[in-house]
């Protein structure tokens, strides 16, 4: 047993929510300890957002080089057919991950945060026992933040192991599987499925809902569906994954019309994520749950005084940037600042091809809230920059109140639109009206010009369509 | 002429064509006079759009050379078919300019082909290709004639070996040695294109720094970044002339610090020392339209010249020579003519350089704030600490936010970094709202995006500390 520690703030989990909370708290002079069982950075940095974006980037580059090797590419750049060494790509990705997680550790240190490596378990509402390499470490804290994140949901008939993999294993394959079946047509499945299709795998996506990306509206998901078809990805919607075939080499699927067996070298199961509390000892606490996640108020307080929860542990949307914002807020609350969750907009981004961004309400959601809405889109086909980038697929769409033109939501689908999301978020935070966006000068030639055009169109007439 | 137009725009560039469309949308009877044979002006025909098409086309070559090996990709040596690349560029131009013709038809703007001049207030003379002359009666005339490449004494442009941006967009082959005179936006973008395609590029600049007028820190890092790519710079050098008599071009220059002279050999010389307003042959003197000391049409800040019924917008008047500034002025004048209150906010006009990394800037530079004596604070964040930048092998550069020391109001934003031209718009929106750095710092930014770096810089300005550095 190590000598007990005590601190003002203890953060359990050093993912984006936890480490940001700890750094901000340290910056504000709070005596802070963070506990992490694995490497700092959580799912996001180690086996999620960052490594997947590295793989997606490599896949895009490979695809572009393949296009250049084709006789009729229009750009006039030619090369021999590119060769992929996925093991090396993975090594490169691992290097990025190592630099970032090392960076996070350094930032915590710089902010004066103590880092304890081990698995935490609640003893009671003020005490946590951490199983470390050197034995058990007891930590007493005035405030404790649960930032334990989430894990992939397993399908009982398709337990992870061998050829059935989660997103984590999909990021460290030594070569592209010849045949990859993706179970789940949400953003994780499609991002990785698209990357592997570009890297040479024959990809089939199995989705139980009637269309892919069921969390986005059909207008937004349609360009992605078109691109998947062009990449040769077979998409089976309204189809359920049942289990492996008797020889274990295929996935049995079933729709209303038909039952099939899909040969697969790897089966990526990406049907969602659930909060991770295993071994945490939540039962020792008097906190309230809401389904699978912890219930929190607008200050991320649980039902128990001094205990907060942030990030995926608090449910949807399970996004790193939401967790970070919550973490920052809790650190400031613990420091005595008056803070509450007042975000108007949390952008959601899909790094598919093309990318999708959604901030605020979509047209149907806005209508469902009983308001009269104005909505308009501006296609990238009428945008000069998009033409020069050979990225004319997609559009920017605005949703606003019909009576006073207050913007309720902005969505976009297209190449690189993930970087437009912040502007959308800011517009919503500022309470912008259509006229405000229409009158903000956007640089020429940029994809961003589609934003004021969409606003103008909602007001009656766009200039360039 | 029997019919009288409410407004005639002379020039079908971004200012003129956008103004014409807007005016027509507001119910005015509109004509737009253009002699080039295609709408879209410099921007669409020989400027922004074609240069971006070539930058995109050459980007892959750059990526393959610098980043592929690290990612486990091997594409072998690349070869460039310049004629085909130019064909791609032409196809982009054509679809853009034809798009405008379609928009004119749709909005009922009369497209009058020929070179326009002002015969008298209310009367525009149009000289057609075939020499025919017609006259348009107009209640209002908008001068939207744009700009042309500024000549330099001792340098004779033939658009073959000694070229302006126009010729640099159609070189039939990759020049072995390209000398660029002028380290402004145009010179650096086109210099980058040909460098990526294999040219040895040397930039000769009169001043002691690149991109005059930009924030000093950006200038320094930007130059370093281009030097790393192999572009050479000779700064503080006055070009005295280009000798085109031999097989090699000779660029003669004098170093300003010690008046020593030297010369550079080149296969192609790109003259890019700036642009000047295009006012010749418009009949401005005869109708009494006043010009300022730099030969630009004088306006009242709302597009009005000193002659009632004659307006001017875009490169031909004061302000940055940017397509989007011209467009906004076109819209503003159209709105004013339609009885609305047109207005351009000159404090929030972004500027972008499409090099790699890109440069984007809006608002005041640090030097300007110092000169104004305004108390300010600086927030900076480097892309090397941004996850997405690492994942796309583009960690060069930084974001710099300047905010008022007491109110925290954002005064200027300067970015050197990947996709800076797209990400800067969030700050344009913020500045239109008079936002404080804290407003941006407290806005949820999606992860993992490059835009997170913009927020971290705002945090550094607002709170003194970003999270990730």
Description:
The complex is a heterodimer of chains A (465) and B (469). Chain A has 465 residues and is α/β, with parallel strands linked by helices. Chain A has 3 domains: 181 residues, FAD/NAD(P)-binding domain (3-Layer(bba) Sandwich); 108 residues, 3-Layer(bba) Sandwich (FAD/NAD(P)-binding domain), CATH 3.50.50.60; 111 residues, Enolase-like, domain 1. Chain A is built from 13 helices and 26 strands. The termini of chain A are far apart. The model of chain A has no long low-confidence stretch (mean pLDDT 96). Chain B is an alpha/beta fold and 469 residues long. Chain B folds into 3 domains: 208 residues, FAD/NAD(P)-binding domain (3-Layer(bba) Sandwich), CATH 3.50.50; 112 residues, FAD/NAD(P)-binding domain (3-Layer(bba) Sandwich), CATH 3.50.50.60; 113 residues, 2-Layer Sandwich (Enolase-like, domain 1), CATH 3.30.390.30. In chain B, 33% of the residues lie in helices and 26% in strands. The mean pLDDT of chain B is 96. Classes of the chains: A alpha/beta (465), B alpha/beta (469). Chains A and B meet through α1, α3, β3, β4 and α4 of A and α1, α3, β3, β4 and α4 of B. β4 of chain A pairs antiparallel with β3 of chain B, so a sheet runs across the interface.
């Amino acid at each position: 047993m190590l000598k007990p520690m005590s601190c003002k703030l203890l953060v359990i989990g050093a993912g984006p929510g936890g480490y940001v909370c700890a750094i901000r708290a340290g910056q504000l002079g709070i005596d802070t300890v963070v506990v992490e069982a694995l490497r700092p950075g959580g799912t996001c940095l180690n086996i999620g957002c960052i490594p997947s974006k590295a793989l997606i980037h490599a896949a895009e580059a490979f695809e572009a080089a393949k296009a250049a090797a084709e006789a009729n590419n229009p750009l006039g750049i030619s090369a021999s057919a590119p060769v992929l060494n996925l093991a090396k790509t993975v090594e490169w990705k691992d290097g990025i991950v190592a630099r970032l997680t090392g960076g996070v550790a350094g930032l915590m240190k710089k902010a004066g945060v103590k880092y304890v490596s081990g698995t935490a378990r609640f003893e009671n509402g003020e005490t946590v026992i951490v199983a470390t390499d050197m034995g058990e470490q007891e930590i007493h804290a005035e405030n404790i933040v649960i930032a334990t994140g989430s894990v992939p949901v397993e399908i009982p008939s398709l337990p992870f192991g061998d050829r059935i993999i989660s997103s984590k294993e999909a990021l460290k394959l030594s070569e592209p599987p010849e045949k990859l079946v993706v179970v789940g047509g949400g953003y994780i499945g499609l991002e990785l499925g698209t990357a592997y299709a570009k890297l040479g795998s024959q990809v089939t996506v199995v989705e139980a809902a009637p269309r892919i990306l069921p969390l986005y509206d059909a207008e937004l998901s349609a360009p992605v569906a078109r691109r998947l078809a062009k990449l040769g990805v077979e998409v089976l919607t309204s189809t359920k994954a049942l289990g492996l075939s008797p020889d274990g080499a295929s996935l049995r699927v079933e729709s209303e019309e038909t039952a099939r067996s899909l040969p697969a070298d790897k089966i990526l199961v990406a049907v969602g994520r659930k909060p991770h509390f295993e071994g945490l000892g939540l039962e020792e606490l008097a906190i309230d749950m809401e389904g699978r996640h912890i219930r929190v108020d607008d200050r991320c307080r649980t039902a128990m005084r001094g205990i907060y929860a942030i990030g995926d542990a608090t449910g949807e949307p399970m996004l790193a940037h939401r967790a970070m914002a919550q973490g920052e807020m809790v650190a400031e609350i613990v420091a005595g600042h008056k803070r509450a969750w007042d975000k108007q907009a949390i952008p959601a981004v899909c790094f598919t091809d093309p990318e999708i961004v959604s901030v605020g309400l979509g047209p149907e959601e806005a209508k469902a809230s009983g308001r009269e809405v104005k909505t308009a889109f501006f296609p990238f086909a009428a945008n000069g920059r998009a033409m020069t980038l050979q990225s004319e697929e997609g559009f920017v769409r605005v949703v606003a109140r019909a009576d006073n033109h207050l913007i309720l939501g902005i969505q976009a689908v297209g190449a690189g639109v993930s970087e437009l999301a912040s502007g959308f978020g800011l517009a919503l935070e500022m309470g912008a009206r259509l006229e405000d966006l229409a009158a903000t000068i956007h640089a020429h030639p940029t994809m961003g010009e589609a934003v004021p055009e969409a606003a103008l169109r909602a007001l009656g007439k766009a200039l360039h369509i | 002429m029997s019919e009288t137009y409410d407004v005639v725009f002379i020039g079908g560039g971004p200012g003129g064509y956008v103004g014409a469309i807007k005016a027509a949308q507001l119910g005015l009877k509109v004509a737009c006079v253009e002699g080039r044979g295609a709408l879209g002006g410099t921007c669409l025909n020989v400027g922004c759009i074609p240069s971006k098409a070539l930058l995109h086309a050459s980007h892959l070559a750059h990526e393959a050379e610098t980043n592929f090996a690290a990612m486990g990709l091997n594409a072998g040596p690349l070869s460039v078919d310049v004629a085909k690349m130019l064909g791609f560029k032409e196809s982009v131009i054509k679809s853009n300019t034809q798009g405008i013709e379609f928009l004119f038809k749709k909005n009922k703007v009369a497209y009058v082909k020929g070179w326009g001049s002002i015969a008298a207030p209310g009367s525009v003379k149009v000289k057609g290709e075939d020499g025919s002359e017609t006259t348009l009666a107009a209640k209002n005339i908008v001068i939207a004639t744009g700009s042309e490449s500024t000549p330099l004494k001792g340098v004779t442009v033939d658009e073959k070996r000694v070229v302006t941006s126009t010729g640099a967009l159609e070189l039939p082959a990759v020049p072995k040695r390209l000398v660029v005179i002028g380290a402004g936006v145009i010179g650096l973008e086109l210099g980058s294109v040909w460098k990526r395609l294999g040219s040895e590029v040397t930039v000769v600049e009169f001043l002691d720094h690149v991109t005059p007028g930009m924030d000093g820190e950006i200038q320094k890092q930007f130059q370093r970044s281009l030097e790393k790519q192999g572009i050479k710079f000779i700064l503080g050098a006055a070009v005295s002339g280009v000798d085109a008599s031999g097989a090699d071009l000779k660029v003669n220059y004098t170093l300003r610090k010690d008046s020593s002279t030297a010369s550079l050999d080149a296969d192609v010389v790109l003259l890019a020392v700036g642009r000047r307003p295009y006012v010749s042959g418009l009949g401005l003197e005869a109708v009494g339209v006043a010009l300022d000391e730099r030969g630009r049409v004088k306006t009242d800040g709302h597009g009005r010249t000193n002659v009632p019924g004659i307006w001017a917008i875009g490169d031909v008047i004061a302000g940055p020579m940017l397509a989007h500034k011209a467009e906004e002025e076109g819209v503003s004048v159209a709105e004013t003519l339609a009885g609305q209150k047109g207005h351009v906010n000159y404090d929030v006009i972004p500027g972008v350089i499409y090099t790699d990394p890109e440069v984007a800037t809006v608002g005041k530079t640090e030097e300007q704030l110092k000169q104004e004596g305004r108390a300010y604070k600086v927030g900076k964040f480097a892309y090397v600490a941004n996850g997405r930048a690492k994942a796309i092998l583009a960690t060069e550069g930084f974001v710099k936010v300047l905010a008022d020391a007491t109110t925290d109001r954002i005064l200027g934003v300067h970015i050197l970094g990947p996709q800076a031209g797209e990400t800067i718009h969030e700050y344009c929106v913020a500045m239109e709202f008079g936002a404080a750095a804290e407003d941006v710092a407290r806005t949820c930014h999606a992860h993992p995006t490059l835009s997170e770096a913009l927020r971290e810089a705002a945090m550094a300005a607002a709170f003194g500390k970003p999270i990730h550095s």
